[in-house]
Amino acid sequence: MAAKISYADVEAGTELPAQSFPVTRATLVRYAGASGDFNPIHWNEKFATEVGLPDVIAHGMFTMAEAVRVVTDWVGDPGAVVEYGVRFTKPVVVPNDDKGALIEVSAKVAAKLDDNRVRVDLVAVSEGQKVLGMSRAVVQLT
After folding, report:
1. Residue from 83, 84, 80 nearest 116 by CA
2. Coil, strand, or helix at residue 67?
3. Is the pTM of this model over 0.90?
4. Among 11, 36, 46, 102, which lies 20 to 30 A Cα-Cα from 96?
5. Pair 1, 79: CB distance under 8 Å
6. Distance of alpha carbon 97 from alpha carbon 64, whole angstroms
7. What would the DSSP string read from start to end of the chain?
8. Partners of 74 in the beta sheet?
9. What are 59-73's pLDDT values in tens digits?
10. How many angstroms from the chain centroid is the CA of residue 124?
C-alpha cells in the first residue's frame, strides 16, 4: 500500500481533517485485553482515586494511537508514518457513564522535508485540556 497523498499537493500549513474519538470504560477494557496492560488505573475507579487520579484514565499508548489515526486516515497508508512521538501532558479521564470521554484531534503539515517527507504536528484535546504535547509524525508521501 502506498500513500495516497502526493508531496507536491501539500504545503506547510495544510490542515488534515480533524476527528473525534469516543472513549468508554468498555473501550479501555478491550484495549487492556489487546495490549496486556491491566494496570488498575485504567479500569478500577477506587484504585485510581486512591493513587490521586480524578477517575479512571485512558492508557497513554491508546491515546497516542487514536491521535495518529488522523494522519493514517489522511495519508491512506499506516506504513507511511516513519516516525511518531508525543509527550503525555494530561490524562484522558473516562467517567463511568454512557458518555465516557472524547479525544478531539487536529493536525497540520508543519514542514516539508527532504525525500518526499513531511512533518505533521498534532493537537489532541480532551475536556478542553491538551492531552498530548510535542505530538509529531514524519510521513513519507508519494
Report:
1. 80
2. helix
3. yes
4. 36
5. yes
6. 23
7. ---SS-GGG--TTPEEEEEEEEE-HHHHHHHHHHH----GGGT-HHHHHHTT-SS-B--HHHHHHHHHHHHHHHHS-GGGEEEEEEEE-S--B--SSSS-EEEEEEEEEEEE-STTEEEEEEEEEETTEEEEEEEEEEEE--
8. none
9. 999 999 999 999 999
10. 7
Q: Which residue has the cell 490521586?
A: 52
Distance CA 134, CA 85 (A): 7
What are 21's three cell numbers? 474519538
* Contact in structure between 99 and 26 (CB atoms under 8 Å): no
Rounded Cα distance, 91 and 16, in Å:
24
Q: How far apart are CA 104 and CA 47, in angstroms?
A: 27
Question: Quick one: cell of 41?
Answer: 488505573
**Cα–Cα distance, 33 to 53 (Å, whole number):** 22
Q: What HEC string does 94-131 produce?
A: CCCCCCCEEEEEEEEEEEECCCCEEEEEEEEEECCEEE
Residue 114 sits at φ, ψ, to 5 deg, of: -70, 165
Cα–Cα distance measured from residue 118 to residue 64, given in angstroms and rounded to the nearest whole number: 19
What is the C-alpha to C-alpha distance for residues 132 and 122, in angstroms, rounded to an integer? 8
Q: 38-58 pLDDT, tens per residue?
A: 999 999 999 999 999 999 999
